Amino acid sequence: MINQLPDPLICHILSHLPIKEAVKTSVLSPRWRSLWLWLPSLELTCWKFPNSNAFMSFGDRFLDSNRVSCIDNLKVTIDKDASHLTSWIDAAVKRKVKHIELCWHRLNKCPELPTSTYTCETLVSLKLYRADLANAKFVFLSCLKTLHLRSILYPNEAIFERLVSSCPVLEELVMAISVYDNAILSRVFSRSLKKLKITINNFEHSSCSGVVIDAPLLSFLSINDDLSESLVVINKMHPDAKLDISTSYFMRVFDEETISLKRNSIRGFLSQISKVKDMKICRDTVKLIYQYSKLEWLPQFSYMSCLNATLLYSGLKELPTFLKSCPNLKSLVLVCYGSCDAMSFQEINQISLSYKPECLLSSLEFIDFEFRCRCGDYVPLLKIVRDKQSDYSPEGYSDFQCDFIYEFGNDGVCCN
């Protein structure tokens, strides 16, 4: 039955198999002998081959530049010899590749990205892990919508800025910068960017000086940043953008003396994000804001309508300080973690039910409170959801409906 199908349809079916299994079909009949060479996607991982010669030979055969079939997806993972990569990428570009993912592991030096990549007219997605972009002299990626850059070597600021600004339809950018990236001030200038994720691992001797964002259509910004010497400056983003912040300003201890050293940076950053409407923050960020509030007044987050906070149960007392700066908050989602050794289920139950941020009773419409604690081999979950009804009295939560408390172990069995 399957032999009656046309070759393009058979190749589409084979493309859903691991490449090793697809190659095995070549023994079925003379017709199938070379069908795998026409597959629209290829994932090449060096350690899945017996040796480097077998790896290179396989890549050379599949990525034959004289073959006219298009390649949709190409993923290559290399840990030693990258000498064949340029010819492979050149062939893929010639065959109108749409998605490229390149990963280099265990190489003493980051290899340069083949120059043909920078002007590929069909490329929609480019994901790089450890690469040198020194040869990015001319860049224009007219169709690129997704760009992931992890541990990339930029010789200067102009290279990164040129790369981003030369992608006129770019929608998603992921940046992961580490100490060995030789990273400088990264300017994200894009009129089309909608989603930006930034991770900056600032160790003590990191050379990263920060990220400047100028993206008027940006609707989601995630910042996972130690922010020791670096700084995220937000010049422009969409007024309805969602913000996910996980930052500790590279602090091990959150005391007044340590916070005071970062005072100016924290003040500037909080001021920049004060007009965000939807925000998610982690426990270190909550603690940071709480300690900072002891030194200076927090800015008013008057536009904030939705807040999602993850923190230790012991840090719950620190959150109301920030909540007082959010007078128009409508939705509050809290996820608290702790140990069952610290308090009993009855104590958790009682305190959770009585948690009422008095500063928000006039505006708050929805609360979702979860408490997760580790007890031996299972993690019980206590959950309270309060929904505001049409008639509401600011004196209390009598008009809130409570979707009652439940507690489950890892296997889904009720632990009560």
UniProtKB/TrEMBL annotation:
SMART domains: FBOX (SM00256). Residues 1-35 form the F-box domain. This is FBD-associated F-box protein At5g53635. InterPro entries: F-box-like_dom_sf (IPR036047), F-box_AtFBL13-like (IPR053781), F-box_dom (IPR001810), FBL13/AtMIF1-like (IPR050232), LRR_dom_sf (IPR032675), LRR_FXL15/At3g58940/PEG3-like (IPR055411). It holds the Pfam family LRR_At5g56370.
